[in-house]
Write a sequence for this structure.
């Protein structure tokens, strides 16, 4: 038994230490930013804060939560995420179900499949899409953010594979009882596909919440920015020109502790759904990556 | 005998055409499927297929007020202009250099990490480590960029630690010096992605036939020898697949990351095709040029993806469908 040799034991100790270190390394930046956000301004600006708040206070959060621009962007993000995730889920569930049918039963299946797979490989790029969105008069609307990427083809294929793995007998039995495709999908397949659907929803939710570049392109008015784009503009680009803030507000949002609080609140929804996400996504990814 | 029983179908009794009923029955069964696919088909048509047609502006002198149909045709002028552009060589070099480093490290680090994680028998510990290392993958580069900009600044925590613990006298300009910038970009990319990258290897590890280890054990192989002769050869096909498929990304150096970390000081070493296109093409309104560069990039990527798939098929027997 190799586990009992001295060499392996020494390795084990070293291994546990190394893995713990790697794990810590992945959350240290988050802890650091959290510590800054709960510190008083002076020690934060003097860079005295490490992994623990200095002079604990919640002033930065009060300031952030009293900033109407931040709040508006936050709610826009919530709305965008809810809308975008719903659209994607509906579209890929319906599509994934139809594509899961055999070619013998659904002759057009392979033509549809190629139609979608093609879009995974080829795209017009930023400018042509921008022109289309402008010509559709979607500029400055939420639709420019939620519609273009809504058909997550990869996820649709994952769902398709999941539906295919469901025993055919269930479907046949339902057919004999007179069920149509829609009721089979909603009454037979969906209840079984809950883990897969949970994975998809969480991925879609995180993706929508994190998206920032699309709004930079399609939204001209900063008041319609979702949170990620809003923070990209004021924290990363440090561009306050669009915001037109008064002196007081400018002083507030450029404070180090307030920046940290804004970043933390921006990450918070992802941190909150992550534990649920993690339970499912390993299965989901492996489903797509490893095939018989 | 004498009489043969013959099933009399409803069609014969009522004189209906069998073929027609079949067709009707068939349609009756599939029209819901067409309807289910309709939303996805329409969305992809509007937001992928129509923009694909819009690629023609790469061969035009596109002006927004003229539109696609009235802009002047200029042939390959933008492509020529692109290669004559003074900075373009540097930008392409930066892109390929950064992307290649990311691809290589993005294969090696998760692979080793998965092997190490696989040696852990205490499951709660294993799960905790996994939870921690997957996390950065799900956080947007906007937030990570905000955090790194703070941590890596001249008086940020990294420089403070280097100064106090390691006696480094001068602060290092991690995001202000080109070479450091490249280093930071590759390292932070590995940091963000390595945990997530282990998933596929861990799945493959779980699939290694245990009897191989038992046999090796009987032969007196140490754990190191088992790893070298059983584990690594079993994982090699999946490593080859991951590596070859990553080839297509050689011109994708990570727009989200670099855009949220860079500044004019590091353009010479850190500007990549995507950020360059965004600045010159989109912000300065040279739409046709931006599109031409996009086509160039896609072509290279596409050729490499095909090559990658061929290699994956040849060496690892991997097929996408």
């Amino acid at each position: 038994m190799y586990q009992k040799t001295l060499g392996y034991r020494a390795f084990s100790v070293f291994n546990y230490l190394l893995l713990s270190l790697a794990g810590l390394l992945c959350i240290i930046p988050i802890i650091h930013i959290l510590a800054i956000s709960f510190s008083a301004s002076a020690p934060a600006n003097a860079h005295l804060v490490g992994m623990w708040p200095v002079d604990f206070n919640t002033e930065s959060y009060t300031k952030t939560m009293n900033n109407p621009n931040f709040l508006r962007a936050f709610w826009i993000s919530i709305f965008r995420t809810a809308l975008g995730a719903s659209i994607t889920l509906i579209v890929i569930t319906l599509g994934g179900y139809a594509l899961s049918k055999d070619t013998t039963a659904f002759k057009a299946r392979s033509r549809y499949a190629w139609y979608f797979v093609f879009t995974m490989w080829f795209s017009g790029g930023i400018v042509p899409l921008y022109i289309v969105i402008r010509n559709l008069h979607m500029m400055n609307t939420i639709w420019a953010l939620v519609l273009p990427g809504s058909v997550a083809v990869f996820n649709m294929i994952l769902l398709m594979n999941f539906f295919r793995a469901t025993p055919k007998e269930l479907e046949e039995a339902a057919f004999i009882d007179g069920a149509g495709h829609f009721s089979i999908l909603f009454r037979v397949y969906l209840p079984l596909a809950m883990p897969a659907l949970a994975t998809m929803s969480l991925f879609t939710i995180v993706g929508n919440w994190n998206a920032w570049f699309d709004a930079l392109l399609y939204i001209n008015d900063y008041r319609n920015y979702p949170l990620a784009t809003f923070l990209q503009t004021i924290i990363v680009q440090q561009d306050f020109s669009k915001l037109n803030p008064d002196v007081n507000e400018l002083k507030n949002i450029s404070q180090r502790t307030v920046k940290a609080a804004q970043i933390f609140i921006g990450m918070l929804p992802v941190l909150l759904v992550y534990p649920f996400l993690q339970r499912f996504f390993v299965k989901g990814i492996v489903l797509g990556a490893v095939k018989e | 005998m004498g009489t043969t029983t013959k099933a009399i179908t409803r069609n014969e009794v009522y004189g209906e055409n069998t073929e027609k009923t079949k067709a009707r029955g068939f349609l009756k069964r599939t029209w819901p499927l067409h309807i289910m696919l309709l939303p996805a088909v329409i969305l992809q048509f509007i937001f992928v297929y129509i923009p694909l047609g819009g690629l023609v502006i790469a061969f035009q002198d596109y002006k927004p007020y003229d539109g696609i149909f009235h802009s002047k045709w200029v042939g390959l002028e933008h492509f020529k202009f692109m290669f004559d552009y003074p900075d373009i060589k540097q930008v392409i070099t930066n892109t390929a250099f950064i992307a290649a480093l990311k691809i290589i490290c993005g294969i090696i680090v998760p692979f080793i990490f998965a092997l190490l994680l696989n040696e852990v028998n205490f499951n709660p510990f294993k799960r905790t480590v996994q939870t921690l290392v997957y996390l950065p993958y799900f956080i947007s580069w906007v937030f990570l960029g905000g955090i790194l900009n703070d941590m890596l600044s001249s008086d940020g925590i990294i420089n403070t630690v280097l100064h106090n613990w390691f006696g480094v006298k001068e602060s290092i300009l991690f995001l202000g010096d080109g070479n450091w910038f490249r280093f930071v970009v590759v390292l932070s990319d590995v940091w963000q992605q390595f945990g997530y990258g282990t998933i596929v290897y861990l799945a493959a590890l779980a699939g290694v036939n245990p009897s191989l280890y038992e046999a090796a054990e009987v032969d007196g192989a140490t754990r190191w020898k088992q790893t070298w002769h059983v584990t690594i050869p079993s994982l090699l096909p999946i490593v080859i697949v991951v590596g070859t498929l990553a080839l297509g990304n050689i011109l994708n150096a990570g727009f989200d990351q670099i855009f949220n970390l860079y500044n004019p000081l590091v353009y010479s070493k850190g500007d990549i095709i995507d950020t360059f296109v965004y600045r010159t093409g989109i912000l300065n309104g040279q739409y046709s040029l931006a599109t031409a560069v996009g086509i160039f990039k896609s072509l290279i990527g596409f050729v490499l993806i095909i090559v990658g798939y061929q290699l994956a098929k040849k060496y690892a027997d991997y097929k996408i469908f």
In short: The longest helix of chain A spans residues 256-289. Residues 3 and 9 of chain A are 7 Å apart (CA to CA).
